[in-house]
Amino acid sequence: MTLEGKGLVCSYGATRALDGVDVMAASREILAVVGPNGAGKTTLLKALSGERRPDGGRVLLDGSVVSGADNRWRARLGLVSHRTGLYRKLTVLENLHFFASLRGVPRTRTVLIDALETVGASDLAPARVEALSRGQRQRVALVRSLLHDPDVLFLDEPFTGLDPGGAAALEDALRSRRSAGRIVVLVTHDLPRGLTLADRVVVVRRGRKVFDGEAHRKGAGDLLRFFTAGPEEA
């Protein structure tokens, strides 16, 4: 299974957030998209996932064009972003039951509790989302995104607000997805973590891809030069 973005262009008014970016991710692989704040990483994730329609270029899954308007494509992906997508007034368990029903995926209380336990959050099941910390919400959002066992998992800065235990649980979950033959695309500004966790890394700067290669062949020091050019435009 392969996911490709070819010649992706996205603009916001006069600002070119993506300027002809090519990127590929494959099954059994974690792809880290890294770069300075404002480099275009989140826009790239939105274009690949179908959340944002690109102004130019194409997104392909196994060679076939996909888009956010394609329900079959959206059913095959999971997304964890800055917006957790959780209902604040509902409990964690009520949220998961609701999202499972939307996906047409039967999930018993026991199954949902076990899913929460995989990220060390089973004790949060009866809590209302509004009472949770940012990191706790991130853990629950990850479980929500995996309820339907998606083929492709997109994550935008998922480690934000996580304590060390939560970060370790998330890393384990991502490696598990890779082992299961899924595609994982991780956006982060944390270059060392991206290099440690990923199989391949793409560096984006000012809306353009400036590096694409195997993560273990490049140390953080070799790529830091892409992070030192001052404020970004996109």
Brief summary of the model shown:
It is built from 8 helices and 10 strands. It has 234 residues and is an alpha/beta fold.
Question: Mind explaining what this structure looks like?
Answer:
With 234 residues, the chain is α/β, with parallel strands linked by helices. The chain has two domains: 1-76 and 150-234, P-loop containing nucleotide triphosphate hydrolases (Rossmann fold), CATH 3.40.50.300; 85-149. It has helices at residues 41-49, 71-74, 92-102, 109-117, 134-146, 164-179, 191-197, 220-223, and strands at residues 2-12, 15-26, 29-34, 56-61, 64-65, 77-80, 152-156, 183-188, 200-205, 208-214. The strands form two sheets. It has a six-stranded mixed sheet with strand order 6-7-8-3-9-10, sandwiched between helices. A four-stranded antiparallel sheet has the order 2-1-4-5, with helices on one face.
Summarize the helices and strands and which ones pair or pack.
Elements: E1 2-12, E2 15-26, E3 29-34, H1 41-49, E4 56-61, E5 64-65, H2 71-74, E6 77-80, H3 92-102, H4 109-117, H5 134-146, E7 152-156, H6 164-179, E8 183-188, H7 191-197, E9 200-205, E10 208-214, H8 220-223
Parallel strand pairs: 3-8, 3-9, 6-7, 7-8
Antiparallel strand pairs: 1-2, 1-4, 4-5, 9-10
